TrEMBL record:
This is Cytochrome P450. It comes from Stylosanthes scabra. Keywords: Heme, Iron, Metal-binding, Monooxygenase, Oxidoreductase. It holds the Pfam family p450. PANTHER family: CYTOCHROME P450 82A3, CYTOCHROME P450 82C3-RELATED.
């Protein structure tokens, strides 16, 4: 057990504010070694910090660590445990996980997902071009200042909401007003932030409520429920009106909510009715997909602007392997090895969930030679593992080349325990391909379509903030200028959209 626990709160004071929890826990690993425990209020939590222990954990002990902690906050804000991302390990989680995995990987939905990505990215490139075109504030070299966190957020939310329920919240043909769309994004972000803080403070009932207040938590949850409910009513009516056969066989996309309505067919599972399960599962995917992808895209741009030689190299790759004046398609991504290496290197240094998602030991077991008691929480410090100097040369430096040379064989899919941005084992992120496809295609088309530069000679600010994801604390303002001829931007969106 690490020293320095305070009465009642244990080590919680180390886990708030600055430095961020993964860095505080990382410093403790320097002192206490790769496996140590801390107290979160009355609860004991085991913190693991190297690939060897992670491997032992997610192979030999995987079943034992495949449950999530039952956070009290979840009961109030996330449909109790009908949300499979927070559900304990067992038949309900297995069933939901299977349904989600099938949706994200079957041939029919893959085509729908591909089309949504392509259309939204094309729309988004066109929108940014229009911002530039209409701007009266171009500098002498023709660049315009834009805020990119917002641009990525709008794009990612459009892709995810289209996939879940066929809804476009931003830009042309948006189904809600700009104000309502922003309110919704704010609610999702607040929700993620609450989850992040509650994960740490849940063990102490008083802190749980002091942090936000029950009222604020319930209000945020209610706001999201109203939106999900509206979508569900609409999709249920559509099914009644058109009939199952027509939806499945028509050209109309079968969105995630439609698929859930058909699969659940009104049944109650483990006390949760079909509508609650549908909304809870949709919300789990929205929460899992939006912030993580936006945060990753944001850090990638920050790192590229801080490393101009890497930016030049990826632009050269795009020019030689794709050429100019055409949209980059998903089938091109395999050729873009350096671009993929940039994404991996960003996920290594800035994993969006640096402490993964909290797990709980459901049986006594041994790990790293220690006896661990049932009920102990598990915190996997992904950031510490991914910056271990025993594995990574110059661990804190941004060197995408390592994934083309020394670490060529290392991927992010949970089998190489030195790089686990999506976690590992049974509970590994089910959205790896969805997330990577979205990030690769967005990045490739953005860098192909626009020249970018820093707005000042000061290096881009890299301060992170505490939450469920390690977000950049400040906006990302950069200078952009179209790289290609206006004709290229006019062909977006295409007939396919
Ligand atoms: C850059 C993108 C992403 C990263 C880095 C990421 C990372 C993670 C991590 C670290 C976990 C915890 C895994 C564990 O406990 O070992 C997780 C779980 C999860 N992720 Fe992702 N994720 C990303 C994108 C997505 C997307 C696109 C979706 C949805 C389509 C998604 C849905 C989920 C869900 C539902 C869970 C909970 C799974 C369960 O408990 O069974 N994620 N993700």
């Amino acid at each position: 057990m690490a020293k320095g626990a305070w009465p009642i709160i244990g080590h919680l004071m180390l886990l708030g504010g600055t430095p961020t929890p993964h860095k505080s826990l990382g410093s403790m690993a320097e002192k206490y070694g790769p496996i140590f425990s801390i107290k979160l209020g009355a609860k004991r939590a085991l913190v693991i910090n190297n690939w060897e222990i992670a491997k032992e954990c997610y192979t030999k002990n995987d079943v034992v660590v495949s449950s999530r902690s039952k956070l009290v906050a979840i009961e109030h804000i996330a449909y109790n445990q009908a949300s499979f991302g927070f559900a304990p390990y067992g038949p309900f989680w297995r069933e939901m996980r299977k349904i989600v995995t099938v949706f994200l990987s079957n041939r029919r939905s893959m085509e729908m997902l591909r089309q949504v990505r392509v259309c939204e990215i094309r729309n988004s490139v066109k929108d940014l071009f229009d911002v530039w075109d209409n701007s009266k504030n171009k500098n002498q070299s023709g660049y315009v200042l834009v805020e990119m966190k917002e641009w990525f957020t709008r794009l990612v939310f459009n892709i995810v909401f289209q996939t879940m329920a066929g809804k476009r919240y931003f830009g042309t043909n948006a189904v809600v007003s700009e104000k309502d769309a922003e309110k919704c994004v704010k609610a999702v972000r607040e929700f993620m932030h609450m989850l992040g803080v509650c994960t740490m403070t849940d063990a102490i009932p008083l802190l749980r409520w002091i942090n936000f207040g029950v009222k604020a938590m319930k209000e945020t949850a209610k706001e999201l429920d109203v939106i999900l409910d509206e979508w569900l009513v609409e999709h249920t009516q559509k099914k009644k009106f058109l009939g199952e056969k027509v939806i499945v066989e028509s050209d109309d996309h079968q969105h995630f909510m439609d698929m859930m309505i058909s699969v659940l067919d009104g049944v109650t599972i483990e006390g949760f009715d079909a509508n609650t399960i549908n909304k809870a599962t949709t919300l789990a995917l929205i929460l899992g997909a939006t912030d993580t992808s936006t945060v990753t895209l944001t850090w990638i741009l920050c790192l590229l602007l801080r490393h101009p030689h890497v930016l030049e190299k990826v632009k050269e790759e795009l020019n030689t392997k794709i050429g100019k004046e055409r949209f980059i398609n998903e089938s091109d991504i395999n050729k873009l090895e350096y671009l993929q290496a940039i994404v991996k290197e960003t996920l290594r240094l800035y994993p969006p969930g640096p402490l993964s998602a909290p797990r709980e030991f459901i049986e006594d077991c041994t790990l790293g030679g220690y006896n661990i008691k049932k009920g102990t929480r598990l915190i996997t410090n992904l950031w510490k593992i991914q910056t271990d100097p025993n594995v990574w040369e110059y661990p804190m430096e941004f060197k995408p080349e390592r994934f083309l040379t020394t670490h060529k064989e290392v991927d992010v899919r949970g089998h190489h325990f030195e790089l686990l941005p999506f976690g590992s084992g049974r509970r590994i992120c089910p959205g790896i391909s969805f997330g990577l496809n979205m990030i690769h295609l967005t990045l490739a088309n953005f860098l192909h379509s626009f020249d970018i530069s820093s707005p000042s000679s000061e290096p881009i600010d890299m301060t992170e903030i505490l939450g469920m994801t390690n977000e950049k604390a400040t906006p990302l303002e950069i200078m952009v200028k179209p790289l290609l001829s206006p004709k290229y931007y006019e062909t977006m969106p295409s007939d396919e959209c």
